Amino acid sequence: MQDEQPLNPAEQELEAALRELRPAAAQIDRDAVLFKAGYQSAIRQMRLWQSAAGTLAASLLISLLLPAIYSSPERENVLVGTNRIRQMPTENQTGLIDNVQLESLNGGWVATIGRVFSPADSTNIATQRQDDYFRVRQAVLSRGLDVLRAPDGTGVPRRQNMQRLLDMTPDDVGGEATFKFITRNINGDQL
Amino acid sequence: MNRLDPGKLGQWFDTYAARLVLYARQWMSAGAAQDVVQDVFVRLMCQANEPGNVQAWLFRSVRNAAISEARSGQRRRVRENSVAANRADWFEKRPEDLIDADAAQKALERLPDLQREIVVLRIWADLTLQEIAETVGRPLSTVHDQYRAGLVAVRHEMESSCKMNNP
Hints:
A: 191 residues, mainly alpha, 6 helices, B: mainly alpha
């Protein structure tokens, strides 16, 4: 290495003499520099944490908003189905009850997760059954018994069953027998 | 590289601050040099990791900052140099020194910029010629030649100064 190449004696002597000279002391406030350096370092670390916290907050916000965005079309389907039942149907519309999206109430992965973690499953099912009953009742009152299909799929209403249905009171709808009765008259394979 | 230890900053400051100011004065006045050195220490503390060679990092950073500052404030530098040239000495004046501090400063000031920079880095920054070559961005052979030429020039300058003072 050339760093090791020796200087001649005169150069070595001069180099040694120059080394004896001490640079003038810096007129810098040592404590101020150390404080400023520590402050800037702390600011930098604080910004690092702030950016990390901001990123996490944004991720959390997105994770909360995305399910709401994706689940909104399904809710819209449910509302559309309900509205179509409550509207006065035209004569050309047949099998309108088939359009009732009973499963849509339970559709979507958010609803699935909600059902899994919900402690009040039985309450939800009872409420849903009550809603279904009122839909069917509203449809029958609006269009008559013809909107109901027979279990064999022939479209011939069973007037006796329909009479029982119309005679029911809201207090009866929470029962299991009522629920089976309603679903059997709507579409047996939908629930 | 290791995580920067805040406790070392004070030690580095005590060891290198004066040398860094001397080095920065190759391009600017004493006041501006002190500002540059101060900023470099603050930047060192803001490094995520400790540089592998802190000494070389400090001198290289001071060099870059001083050159940048000198370029941005060329007119101010000329004015300040003329005012501050006689105000602040480069070296402490001590009776036990073999060389007169003022004579050494004058001899160094008359050196070409590259020679002066290399001599300062070699003698007072105590960098190796290889580290100096990396700092100034010149080949090692060039640095070596310039260093020897600088020493010869300083010796001649001081000899002539002595002859003038003691005819």
